[in-house]
Design goal:
One of its GO terms (molecular function) is RNA binding. With about 180 residues, the chain is α/β, with parallel strands linked by helices. It contains seven helices and eight strands. An eight-stranded parallel β-barrel has the order 1-2-3-4-5-6-7-8, surrounded by six helices.
Length: about 180
């Protein structure tokens, strides 16, 4: 399993992608991409020795069935996948690709449901959203026994610091000014 620590830059557009290529960050997470762009941006990132992570649910034009996931793994050779969908996490694990189960903590019912789902599928990491609730980061980490990534609504260096102090192994953010915290 790939070890994720510190800031994980999440790229929403090509301008941000260019900035991450020249950075010292080892990992890049692609959000909101199109299937037609995927092969070229993954190839380009790999040329810069970046480990490529895809938020699979946000790839426009991709069907997240076995064949779509197989395409990402065999043809694009992605390093990791992020998804809210159990089938995506299961397929990534089946093919030995690091899997991050994204959990939205809306209320107690959602928390309980997500913890049960995580226990069944056993992802490599759990991403907690919003990532600005330190107490919930700690609780999810304790209840799942998995490393937690904090994401969503991370807007300041203080948010990053609090998430890491609460036990998050990493923080995802698309805010460029936080990539070098």
């Amino acid at each position: 399993m790939i070890q994720l620590q510190g800031i994980l830059p999440a790229v929403r557009n090509l301008r941000d992608f260019e900035k991450i290529l020249s950075s010292n960050h080892e990992h890049v997470i692609f959000l909101e991409t199109r299937l037609s762009q995927l092969a070229s941006i993954v190839k380009y990132a790999k040329r810069y020795n970046k480990k490529v992570w895809l938020h699979v649910d946000l790839i426009q034009g991709l069907k997240t069935d076995e064949y779509g996931i197989e395409f990402l793994i065999r043809h694009l050779e992605v390093d990791g996948m992020i998804s809210t969908k159990v089938n995506v996490i299961s397929l990534a694990k089946k093919h030995h690709v690091t899997a991050v189960q994204r959990l939205f903590l809306l209320d107690s019912h959602a928390l309980d449901h997500n913890l049960k789902m995580t226990g069944n599928v056993k992802p490599d990491y759990v991403e907690v959203l919003p990532g600005i609730i330190p107490r919930m980061i700690k609780e999810v980490s304790e209840k799942t026994g998995l490393p937690v990534i904090a994401g969503g609504l991370i807007r300041t260096s203080k948010d990053v610091e609090m998430a890491l102090q609460a036990g998050a192994s990493a923080v995802t953010t698309s805010h460029i000014d936080l990539w070098d915290c």
